[in-house]
Amino acid sequence: MPDDCNILAFMAKLFPELEELWLEGTPIMIEELLQATVYFPHIRRLEIGLHTLKPKSKPLSHILKGHGQHVDRDCMPKSTLALELCVIERQEDRRAFSAEDWDFIAGFLTSHWSSISIKPSPIEDLLERTFKINEKFALHSAQRAENRCRDKESA
Predict the structure, then answer these.
(1) Helix (H) or strand (E) holding 35
(2) What's the CA gap between 109 and 116, in Å, rounded?
(3) Is residue 9 domain-resident?
(4) C-alpha R_g of the chain
C-alpha cells in the first residue's frame, strides 16, 4: 500500500462489496471516516479508531461540506459503527474538535449508521465531560427515529 494512500479508499478498491471491517490499531482521521460511507456502500459493521484532531481550524461542517451530498440519508438497517477515540500528538496543520464539530460528526454519522458506540477510554471520558458527545449521538439518533416515524405517518 502506498504511504500517502487513504487506507479506506485502498481497502474499498480491493474489496468493494465488503460488509464488515475491523481496523484495530489503525486510527484514521475524521475526513476518512466520513468518506467510508461513500467507499463502502454495503458495509454494515465498522470498528475503527478515530483521531480526535481535524484539518485546519475551521468548523468541520465547512471543511467537509461536500461529503454529506454523497451519502444516502437513510441509514442502513442493522448497521453498526464502533469508534475508539485516539489521541495523537498535536500537529501544526491539525486542531482539536470543538462542540460544533462533535454535533456535526454526530449528525452525519447517525444519518448513515443505525447504531453507534464509542468505546470507553480516558479520552472518551474527557470528551464526554467536556462536550457531552454521547448525548449528542443520542439526540441525533432520537431525531432520526422521530423523522422516520413522521415520514411513515405521512406516507
Answers:
(1) helix 30-39
(2) 8
(3) no
(4) 15
Residue 124 CA to residue 50 CA, distance in Å, equals 11
Domain presence at residue 2: no
Identify any residues that bridge with 53 across adjacent strands, giving them in sequence order. 96
User: pLDDT digit of tens for each residue in the chain (155 aa)?
Assistant: 555 567 777 888 898 888 898 887 778 888 788 777 777 778 889 888 888 887 777 777 776 666 554 444 466 778 899 998 887 666 666 778 888 888 988 888 888 888 899 988 888 888 888 888 889 999 998 988 888 888 888 87
Say how many residues make up the chain: 155
Residues whose CB is less than 8 angstroms from the CB of residue 32 and which lie 6 or more positions away in sequence, other chains included:
6, 7, 8
Cell (9 digits) for 149: 416515524
User: Would you state the torsion angle of the CA atoms of residues 32, 128, 89, 33, taken in this order, to the nearest 10 degrees?
Assistant: 0
Q: Scanning the structure block, which residue is given the C-alpha cell 453498526?
A: 80
Report d(CA 110, CA 103) in Å as an integer: 11
- State the cell numbers at 29: 482521521
**For residue 52, what are the domain limits?**
18-154
Match 478498491 to its residue by C-alpha cell. Answer: 13
Is 7 within the bounds of a domain?
no
